[in-house]
Amino acid sequence: MDGKLLARQIFLRTLEALDVADSVPRCVVCTDRVLHCADAKYDLREVSDLRVITVGKAAHAMLDGLIAILPADINITGIVSAPVPPKKRQPDLRYFAGGHPTPNAESLLAGEAALNLLRGCSTKTLVIVLLSGGGSALMEFPLLTDLSLADIQQLNRALVTCGAPITEINAVRKHVSAVKGGRIAQAAVPARVITLAISDVPVGKESALASGPTLPDPTTLEDVSAIVAKYNLRAQLPDRLANWIGSGEMPETPKPGSPAFERAQFQLVLGMHQLFHAAHRIAESLDCEAFCDNSTDDWPVEKAADSLLAQLQELRAANPHRRVALIADGELSSALTGDGVGGRNSAFVLACVRKIAGKRIVVLSAGTDGVDGNSPAAGAVADGETLSRAGSAALDPQDFFCRSDSFHFFEALGDSVVTGPTGNNLRDLRLLIAQP
């Protein structure tokens, strides 16, 4: 099989294997009107009202999975914020078309609606939060209430372009938000809260998912001040926000041990392990000797490319007569150096083009959500012939890389990976395949 076609098949079949709606009932079961989630039980006969907050790129599929397990006669109220409209709307739920990667007016309306939904909760209220990647932008509401949408968008631009890793970006986001950093759980007290999550963050860093609306925040006000100083952000922030951060009046986010989390449970539905397992199984079914790696998470794309290609070379040497597939996950960093179209996945593949020229190697990188940066593609694929084909078409990969225009490079060669929004959002998936 052609190597690029093989890589595409592994990626697409992995997506098919990770069906969101089917995954929810594997984590939560309802028997005789009792919800079972891990070791916890929730007797719906003792619940006076069920409220649902659904936020993220996988919001609609997660909601479908939840509705499928609930008794047909149970009434729920709630909000849904997703980047695309649902195929079918559920009664008594309010829907919002939140913005991503930048919050929009609907994002703020969704945040306000979520906080209003949680007013008046009692000990007999059950709140189910369905959370997936993208939630940081899709649901927002400022803690400093006189901040405008333009102010929030200005903050977002400053954070995502300053070079800070996502952990530092989220530390600031959490502290200026009324719905992040555990504050949704705080607003729900004294209700019981279940969060079901599809994670696009590293294992052990779940509070980074959608900026952790229902989890304790490990970051502090001191961290925020240090980040603002480290990246010279003060001049890039709205004056009223910069002054508030510097005033000492910003309240701290809830921490472990807070009453906000005494009746809250967090359950992972899909994450890195499920992504690796599916991709590994599918690669081996297609006659590859498969290996998994997550050591390059959050690395710059070129550093990750060098590391993963070196690993692939070692695996090929140890398995000289087999086709070898190295499967990596995680989100890389790709600095914006131009105003082109693309994202970290196609940038990673572009960084590999010269390194694999003339070799029997294929590289694919794509987002499981079907979106790569500001492009219409999920990512891209390249092989040892890509550089020569680009030369014949007068395409200079370094020029496209410097202009952050990786999408148009691969689009011209027919090597973009386009799926459209998948309704899922696990981590990015990279496949490096060496032919014998």
Describe this structure in words.
The chain has 16 helices and 15 strands. The protein has 436 residues and is an alpha/beta fold. The protein has a six-stranded parallel β-sheet with strand order 6-5-4-7-8-9, sandwiched between helices. Strands 10-11-15-12-13-14 form a six-stranded mixed β-sheet, with helices on both faces. Helix 3 links the parallel strand 4 and strand 5. Helix 2 (20-27) crosses helix 3 and helix 7 packs across helix 9. The chain starts with a helix and ends with a strand. The mean pLDDT is 94.
Q: Proportion of β residues?
A: 15-25%
Cα end-to-end separation? 13 Å
State the secondary-structure class: alpha/beta
pLDDT below 50 for ≥5 consecutive residues: which ranges? Answer: none
The profile of the biggest β sheet is: 6 strands, parallel
Mean pLDDT equals: 94
The count of β-strands is 15
Rg over C-alpha atoms, rounded to the nearest angstrom: 22 Å
Note the total helix count: 16
Strand order of the largest sheet: 6-5-4-7-8-9
Helix content: 25-40%
Shape: globular
